[in-house]
Design a protein that fits this description.
single chain, mainly alpha, 2 domains, elongated, transmembrane helix, Transmembrane protein, coiled coil, transmembrane, membrane
Length: 531
């Protein structure tokens, strides 16, 4: 019926498209070919009269019997040819009538009862709901657990966080991408400044610069995420102390690292100038400079740099380090440690629960759409079946009229030929009365002209069958309309019920999430579970 249809409609109604009647019975298959199919018997009237005169001259004995056995050979030939036409027409029409009866039987659908149809619709709808029951239960349990965890967190740290909601970081990948970008940017800038200080050129400078940049960025992220967040926002004093220590160490390490790189590049610049003056530029390498000498040269004047390149390295490194600290502090997760995690967990559980509920809604929507399509298809097919049954009966009536016309034409010829034969026979007998004497009397069957009988062609049976089929179709149409009206009301009730449930659940979840249920600052675990 449809590519995707309801299961309960597989055995109800018209299961296939209604095709027009195509009676393949042809007159030639029943011996009616050429002129014979038009009712022409093929006998010449003049020849028939000549045969009648010959039969009269043969002095056929008189008889009182009026039977076909007493007919002449010519009359029997005429009757036989006319009877073959009538038999062929009768067989042709009986075959057509059988095709019409079979067609009506195929177009007659099974009886449809509204009560049974409604129960079948509800049964399959409950199966759709049952299939999603496990997913709904799991989503509800996981969401309830996430709500409980969120409420417990708010209950433990409520005096610190108050009513603020966490800054939910959904695009952590974007933050990572920014960190990688600034790391590459710093590495590329450092590589340009280091490429003249060693024999490997730009490639060697890239390797050294990216290594320094990666350490700088990672150190900044750790300082912001585990140092600044914990030191400024953690409710536990011990964790705040630890965060402060991490923050101090991170800031100190990051600043010292960038100053070391700047002083190292300054030392490289000094070495390049000295090697150029001494003529030993080919033997110079930045790796010949001892890091300990650079660290010793940083103090006591740590900002005493002589090269603009070193100053550029210092400015670039500190900028990247500051951006990494900010990204770690504010962009990866919520500033309050742990709050963003439990909030995101509850939010994901809520979204999953909503997704499952929407999936159920979509499944039911698809199911109801299929039900509507089934009803529309059945209504159109019932109407089409009713129309095709009437057309089939009209076709049968048309063929009967054609058969009646052909049979009547053949009967007229039969009667006309018999009359012509008998009149010619009687006149010839009267002319030969003196010669034939007592044998001149005409046979008794000449006193009455037998009128050929046409086939009955009665189609009461087909008409009764068609009326019964049309009655069943009308009853089904009424049942379909009643059930379709019920379906629309049922769909509205289901949608209203789902909307009210969604609204109620959404309100309760918002109350739980915001911690404002019944005017209280926090919601109990039991209320969170009920929501």
């Amino acid at each position: 019926m449809l590519k995707k249809t309801v299961r309960w409609g597989a055995d109800v109604g018209c299961q296939s498209k209604i095709k027009p009647l195509d009676p393949k019975a042809d007159m030639s298959e029943f011996g009616l070919k050429g002129k014979l199919a038009e009712g022409e018997l093929g006998f010449n009237r003049a020849l028939t009269k000549r045969d009648a005169k010959k039969d009269a001259a043969d002095a056929i004995p008189a008889s009182d019997a009026i039977t076909q056995d007493q007919w002449s050979e010519r009359e029997q030939q005429i009757a036989e040819r006319a009877e073959s036409v009538r038999r062929g027409l009768t067989t042709w029409l009986s075959t057509t009538a059988a095709s019409v009866r079979n067609f009506i039987h195929d177009c007659t659908p099974i009886d449809i009862y509204p009560d049974q149809l409604r129960e079948a619709i509800k049964s399959e709808e409950n199966e759709y709901r049952h299939y999603e029951l496990d997913d709904v239960s799991d989503a509800k349990q996981s969401h309830s657990a996430a709500i409980v965890e969120l409420q417990q967190f708010r209950a433990r740290h409520g005096d610190k966080i108050g009513d603020r909601t966490p800054d939910i970081k959904k695009n952590v990948e974007q933050t990572v991408a920014i960190l990688v970008f600034i790391m590459l940017l710093e590495g590329g800038f450092n590589a340009l400044l280091f490429k003249d200080a060693q024999a490997s050129g730009l490639l060697g400078g890239l390797m050294i610069a990216f290594a320094v940049s990666a350490v700088n960025v990672c150190l900044g992220v750790i300082t912001g995420f585990f140092g600044m967040r914990y030191a400024l926002n953690h409710p536990n004093m011990a964790m705040r102390v630890i965060g402060g220590v991490v923050l101090a160490l991170g800031l100190t390490s990051g600043i010292l690292l960038n100053f070391f790189v700047a002083h190292f590049r300054d030392a490289v610049e000094t070495g390049l100038i000295a090697a150029t003056a001494a003529g030993t530029m080919g033997e110079f390498s930045m790796f010949n400079i001892a890091p300990g000498d650079v660290i010793a040269g940083m103090f006591p004047n740590i900002i005493g740099l002589h090269s603009f390149i070193a100053l550029g390295l210092l400015f670039m490194g500190l900028t990247v380090f500051g951006l990494a600290v900010y990204e770690g502090y504010d962009r990866i997760s919520d500033r309050y440690p742990g709050y963003g995690r439990v909030w995101r967990k509850e939010r994901k559980a809520y979204e999953r629960r909503q997704q499952v509920r929407n999936d159920v809604r979509d499944d039911l929507s698809d199911y109801f759409t299929q039900c509507r399509m089934w009803f529309e298809t059945q209504l159109s097919r019932h109407v089409s079946a009713k129309r095709e049954i009437e057309k089939a009966l009209n076709e049968l009536e048309a063929r009967r009229d054609i058969a009646m016309a052909i049979a009547a034409k053949a009967a007229d010829q039969e009667r006309s030929l018999k009359v012509a034969y008998r009149q010619a026979h009687r006149r010839a007998r009267n002319q030969l009365r003196d010669k034939l004497g007592e044998q001149a009397a005409c046979p008794a069957y000449f006193d009455e002209i037998v009128t050929p009988q046409l086939p009955p062609f009665d189609y009461t049976k087909e008409r009764d069958q068609a009326n019964d089929a049309i009655k069943a179709i009308d009853q089904n149409l009424k049942a379909l309309n009643m059930t379709r009206e019920w379906l629309e009301q049922h769909i509205q009730q289901v949608q209203k019920g789902l909307s009210s449930i969604d609204k109620k659940v959404g309100e309760e979840i918002e109350k739980v999430r915001e911690g404002k249920s019944a005017g209280k600052a926090f919601v109990s675990v039991d209320e969170a579970r009920r929501a």
